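Retry 2 of 3 after timeout on previous attempt. Resubmitting structure tokens to design endpoint.
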């Protein structure tokens, strides 16, 4: 008999923009960002000694982020030496993969309490710092269809008929909603007793379609377009390009953590769960497409036994504007369901941390709305995608200790 994987808590750091002159959190390694959310979980009532495993998503596992970042963060947080911890890396989908992996342990009875989430400091460990072979070896690049992620986004938008104006309009929406967002799941980042950041950076009031229309396209002249044309029969390259700096996800730093557990954990914690992990699915499409999100989402919904119309919220990572636009159109999601408080094109996508952030958002929003089902979706390079279906329970506060 399969047990339930309940969600007892879900939190995240603010998202801090990467800047050339050093961002707000550029001085904080990713293991410290992760350690701070682990410490916060204990402050909110988790006895670290009951944690059976820690599973964290990390996309770029090199340098400071190599060598089992999760175990380093556990030790940095002062958790018991006996606490096991490890990482999963599925590019941008890493955080959702960590959630699925932790939920599987609980549902099969192999663990009673698992902490999941992820971390990424793109200031300190830039994307592609691991120098993957598919990006460096021309023969392997040809075989895998590797292109820069922006070319993937443009190619996917062109394939599905989205216009530059539609992509820009989504960015306007994202900025407006993110600027007005009120997330209670966010915990401040500190250093030496000083608070460095309390809120997401990046969102701007007053962004207009007219101002975005004046921005140049980023990927129109990329030499790797030839690989798209070779792999997609009949593909027509978009003239002048589609995505810009405004419709691309901000690079940023951040961490997330959620506590998953069995029904028995409620007695240990002295509080009820805030939701549960219902189903998940991994998918892939021919690279360099970014539309594996549709297969992943539909499969996860089918496994959950619900329809897209049953969703109360959907947190779709804004891996360029095309991603939420495509998911909204293909699943028929209303404007009051998808990314209701903005997303990554406004405030950033910290790669491995993003899955846990989407979970924290969905749990909070579902709690505010009286419960129901939510969908989390992220695509990644080389055509991969992951989707998770959750159920949130009605709460007075968005999260335990989260305030009114």
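Retry 2 succeeded. Sequence:
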């Amino acid at each position: 008999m399969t047990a339930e994987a309940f969600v007892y808590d879900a939190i995240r750091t603010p998202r801090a923009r990467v800047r050339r002159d050093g961002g707000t959190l550029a001085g904080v390694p990713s293991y410290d960002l992760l350690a701070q959310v682990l410490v916060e979980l204990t402050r909110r009532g988790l006895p670290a000694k009951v944690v059976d495993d820690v599973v964290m998503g990390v996309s770029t596992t090199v340098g400071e982020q190599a060598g089992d970042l999760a175990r380093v963060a556990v030790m940095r947080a002062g958790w018991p030496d006996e606490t096991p911890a490890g990482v999963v890396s599925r590019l941008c989908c890493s955080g959702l993969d960590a959630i699925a992996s932790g939920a599987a342990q609980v549902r099969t009875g192999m663990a009673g309490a698992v902490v999941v989430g992820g971390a990424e400091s793109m200031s300190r460990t830039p994307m592609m710092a691991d120098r993957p072979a598919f990006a460096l070896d021309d023969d392997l690049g040809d075989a895998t269809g590797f292109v820069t992620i922006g070319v993937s986004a443009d190619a996917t938008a062109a394939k599905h008929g989205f216009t530059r104006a539609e992509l820009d309009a989504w960015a306007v929406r994202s900025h407006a909603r993110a600027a007005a967002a009120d997330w209670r799941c966010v915990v401040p980042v500190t250093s030496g007793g000083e608070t460095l950041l309390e809120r997401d950076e990046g969102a701007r009031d007053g962004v207009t379609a007219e101002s975005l229309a004046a921005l140049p396209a980023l990927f129109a002249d990329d030499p790797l377009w030839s690989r798209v044309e070779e792999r997609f029969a009949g593909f027509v390259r978009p003239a002048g390009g589609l995505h810009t700096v405004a419709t691309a996800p901000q690079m940023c730093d951040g961490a997330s953590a959620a506590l998953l557990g069995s029904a028995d954990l409620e007695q240990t914690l002295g509080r009820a769960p805030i939701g549960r992990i219902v189903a998940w699915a991994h998918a892939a499409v021919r690279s360099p497409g970014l539309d594996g999100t549709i297969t992943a989402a539909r499969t996860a919904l089918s496994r959950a036994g619900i329809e897209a119309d049953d969703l109360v919220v959907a947190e779709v990572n804004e891996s360029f504007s095309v991603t939420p636009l495509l998911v909204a159109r293909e699943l028929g999601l209303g404007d009051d369901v998808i990314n209701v408080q903005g997303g990554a094109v406004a405030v950033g996508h910290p790669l491995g941390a993003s899955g846990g952030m989407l979970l924290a958002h969905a749990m909070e929003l579902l709690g505010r709305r009286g419960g129901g089902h939510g969908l989390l979706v992220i695509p990644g390079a080389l055509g991969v995608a992951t989707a998770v279906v959750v159920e949130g329970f009605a709460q007075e506060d968005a999260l335990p200790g989260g305030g009114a």
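Attempt log closed. The two ends are 38 Å apart (CA to CA).
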